[in-house]
């Protein structure tokens, strides 16, 4: 598939997601990075968003709970180029009933080439980069060219 450039703005739209066994870890990481996160627009799935907002005072745009469709809501925003980065503290050792939704979210974030942290170490790397606070270009699929080619 052909690609085009997309510019991620200085003030990024960041989705925060965590499985139940990783919520405390994401909360700790969010508290540690509160000042940086406050400069961005934050989204989160239901339970995670309520926890983070209550404990940090950060303004977070809530989705519904992940198992109820929140993961899919975040994925839809990614495919609409409305999410610029994903921080998903995923628990690969614990089976969840909405595992297909989780895999779909990870796949769509990869397809749309957004920065994605799946654990504390990768989140630290992304948030210690100067790129988190400045505009930067990424390559994304040229979906319009794909549709036009299908018409021919």
From TrEMBL:
Keywords per UniProt: Lyase
Alphabetized GO MF terms: methylglyoxal synthase activity
Keyword Ribonucleoprotein (UniProt): no
Catalytic reaction list: dihydroxyacetone phosphate = methylglyoxal + phosphate
EC number annotated for this UniProt entry: 4.2.3.3
Boundaries of every MGS-like domain copy: 6-152
CC annotations in GO: cytosol
Top enzyme category: lyase
Residue positions binding substrate: 19, 23, 45-48, 65-66, 98
Segments forming a coiled coil: none
Annotated GO biological process: methylglyoxal biosynthetic process
Active site as annotated: 71
Family stated for the protein in its record: Belongs to the methylglyoxal synthase family.
Described purpose of this protein according to its UniProt entry: Catalyzes the formation of methylglyoxal from dihydroxyacetone phosphate.
Protein name (database record): Methylglyoxal synthase
Species per Swiss-Prot/TrEMBL record: Vibrio mangrovi
Name of the gene this protein is made from: mgsA
């Amino acid at each position: 598939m052909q690609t085009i450039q997309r510019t991620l703005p200085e003030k990024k739209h960041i989705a925060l997601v965590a499985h139940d066994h990783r919520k405390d870890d994401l909360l700790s990481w969010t508290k540690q990075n509160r000042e940086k996160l406050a400069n961005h627009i934050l989204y989160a799935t239901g339970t995670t968003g309520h926890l983070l907002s209550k404990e940090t005072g950060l303004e977070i745009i809530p989705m519904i709970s992940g198992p109820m469709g929140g993961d899919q809501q975040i994925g839809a925003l990614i495919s609409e180029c409305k999410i610029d980065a994903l921080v998903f503290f995923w628990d690969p050792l614990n089976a969840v009933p909405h595992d297909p939704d989780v895999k779909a979210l990870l796949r769509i974030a990869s397809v749309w080439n957004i920065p994605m942290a799946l654990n504390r170490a990768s989140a630290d790397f992304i948030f210690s980069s100067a790129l988190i606070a400045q505009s930067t270009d990424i390559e994304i699929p040229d979906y319009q060219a794909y549709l036009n080619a299908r018409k021919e």
